[in-house]
Amino acid sequence: MSLTATAKAGPRSPAGTGPGPDDGRAAALRRTWRKASPYAYIAPFFTLFLAFGLFPLLYTAFVSLYRVELQTSGEMEWRGIANYTALFTDEYFWTSLRNTFTIGVLSTVPQLAMALGLAHLLNYKLRGRTFIRTAILLPYATSVAAATLVFAQLFGKDFGLINYVIGLVGFDPVDWQTGTVASQIAVSSIVIWRWTGYNALIYLAGMQSIPHELYEAAEMDGASRWRQFVHVTLPGLRPTIVFTVIISTIGATQLFGEPLLFEGSISGGISHQYQTLGLYMYEQGWGFFHLGRAAAIAWVMFVLIVVLVGANALIARRRARKEAGR
Amino acid sequence: MPIARAAKRATARLGAVVLAGALLAACGSSDSSDSSDSAGGKVTLNVDLFGSFGFKEAGLYEEYQKLNPNITIKQSDTQDEADYWKSLQTRLAGGGGLADVQGVEVGRIASVTQQQSDKFQDLKEFGADKLKGEFAEAKWSAATTKDGKILGLGTDVGPEAMCYRTDLFKEAGLPTDREELASRWATWDGYLELGKEYKKKAPAKSAWLDSVGSLYGIMIGQEKERYYDASGELIYDKNPAVKEAWDTSVEAAEAGLSAKLDQWSPQWNQAFAAGSFATIPCPAWMLGYIKGQAGDGGQGKWDIAKLPGGAGNWGGSYLSIPRAAEHKEEAYKLIEWLTAPEQQAKVFQKQGNFPSSTGAIETIADAEDEYFSGAPIGQIFGDAAKESPVQVLGVHDQNVMQQITNALSEVERKGVSSDKAWGTAKKGVDNVIG
């Protein structure tokens, strides 16, 4: 009796529910949940993205076709692509585009080069390595506003520390706010200060994935640290470098806080000498309240970033393919 | 596939909940910031201002709260008016986050009356029209729309004078008596001449003037018509008065009389205490600013004389109530009290902001200021206020001014030629007007 009973009970499900009509439905429900649940889990991101990412993007495109003033934002006047075509004859637009490029180069190139060097040094066994690694990230943790205000003081014309030091060496003080090159260097230095450590840590992470045996082998072959860097570190780090270049390009194209706070001028200095695209957009939108024109600039910036990143990726891929073919 | 549809619906519902949550959070935070404990009949009034209106400094909020125990006043302020105006415009466009009382600079009042009369409360509804006789005529009419809405009550006006450092004058061998100086610089030419004399024997690292921007600003304040004519047309590039102020400023820049500072910049602020300049054109509201920047060390080193070239007005403000404000009626009672003669007089005594209420002007006629070597500020600024012209105001006054002073800085700091810089100014104005 008991034997048959256990035998009978055996095939039953552990939960003890009989193979009734309910069983099929629960299984189906479980199956669909398994299929649908990933969507539910990612839904919060995409809902937020739709509301605060995609919608503003499209709405900006819509606004950029109108003449809209913040003070009278209820009245929209159709302008078609006139907001865009006006940019091509707008001297300040070209100035800010050029400034964005020069400040971008002035800040990105030394920044990445220094980060690479720093990371290479940190990759060796140093005393207090963890402390140093954390310390180089500190500038990144500082707020742009605080950092820029300090730098603005350092670069002051009459009472700035930098001009004081320059004076000790015997040079004339530099008007860091007014000169085109001088002001761009000053703004770039804030960017460099803030982001070098951040990039160095990314490089460091990349370097740690390079097998240590390669360094040992190179050392046994009598390669100096510099040659190790050139022949082992750099090739192994290529994907990481491409990543940082792309991130820095995006950052440089959107540069805004540093030039805005450097002198507190929305025009980027008296002759727009360090006005970036982001700042020009802000000046049009929130200085002069031309929302339509600001929206057009925003879209031009967006397209510009897409093109730049695309170009970066293309170059990187072509180089990779060339290397593979070798 | 009913189940797939259910899943889709569930996703949508989840999304809606998340979104609603985010929105609620947004509303919640704005609710709590302008809290009103209506339970106990207590009301918190938010007052949002720029620069220094001097209400807090003169102890007016405390006094008002004592008189009205159910009211608590919270003030927030922004130093730079341009930043303040930006954020106010953004909030007006969005319709949220507005304070119960918002300050408006006189350079913006035309924008309020001509473009945004639907966004500000008509104070006539609270009986403001009975106050008309208490204010200077020009002050009152500037805040009144064509159809008679009253959109703001006047706080201060900006009668102009010249502030100077007696210690630096002494070192350079110039007279320090305010009467004598007033007669030496009766005209702007006289002022520039004296500046050249100063430059010859000036103490090291000290210029005659802080920036040509403030020179331009104070000169343009002496004019009735500036950037717009009475019909509202933009005339700045044809106006001989603008040209004259421009030319004088260029002359000062080219003669190397200015310290090449940018007004409102940190460098400018530091220069007040450091003695980088000997004179600064000063509307009445600048007195409080000088005291703040030059600090106690400047006590007695400063003095005030009559302005070269006649009386003028630069700046001055209003208190307005946005339509979206939460406690409009209480806010009106507060601004009526704050702009009443007694209170305006108190602000003047403490901060130097010159009253726009005629009653207050009478009571302060013999006021003197210890900080400024006992200068008779009541008389100097009172005379200037009486004689200054009634100015024509336009929608973009403040922005046009900004573009012109920017271009002047190019002459001053980069040695750009006057013609080229004027071209920049015109381009800048076109850009602003859009």
What does this structure look like?
The complex is a heterodimer of chains A (326) and B (434). By secondary structure, chain A is mainly alpha-helical. Chain A has 15 helices and two strands. In chain A, helix 12 runs antiparallel to helix 15 (291-325). Chain A starts with a helix and ends with a helix. Chain B is α/β, with parallel strands linked by helices and 434 residues long. In chain B, strands 1, 2, 3, 4, 5, 6, 7, 8 and 9 form a nine-stranded mixed sheet that branches. The longest helix of chain B has 32 residues, at 2-33. At the A-B interface, helix 2 and helix 14 of A face helix 1, helix 3, helix 11, helix 17 and helix 18 of B.
Low-pLDDT runs of chain A: 1-18
Distance between the termini of chain B: 56 Å
Structural class of chain B: alpha/beta
Portion in strands of chain A? under 5%
Q: Nearest-angstrom radius of gyration of chain A? A: 29 Å
Shape of chain A: flat
C-alpha Rg of chain B (nearest Å) = 24 Å
Compute the separation of the termini of chain A in Å.
78 Å
List the helices and strands and how they pair.
The complex is a heterodimer of chains A (326) and B (434).
Chain A: H1 2-9, H2 21-63, E1 66-67, E2 77-78, H3 82-88, H4 91-122, H5 129-135, H6 138-141, H7 144-154, H8 161-169, H9 180-208, H10 212-220, H11 225-236, H12 238-253, H13 257-263, H14 277-287, H15 291-325
Antiparallel strand pairs in A: 1-2
Helix pairs in contact in A: 2-15, 4-9, 4-12, 7-13, 12-15, 14-15
Chain B: H1 2-33, E1 43-50, H2 60-67, E2 71-78, H3 81-94, E3 101-105, H4 106-115, H5 137-142, E4 153-165, H6 166-171, H7 178-184, H8 188-201, E5 207-209, H9 212-220, H10 240-254, H11 266-274, E6 277-283, H12 286-294, E7 302-305, E8 313-320, H13 328-338, H14 341-351, E9 354-355, H15 358-363, H16 377-387, H17 397-414, H18 418-433
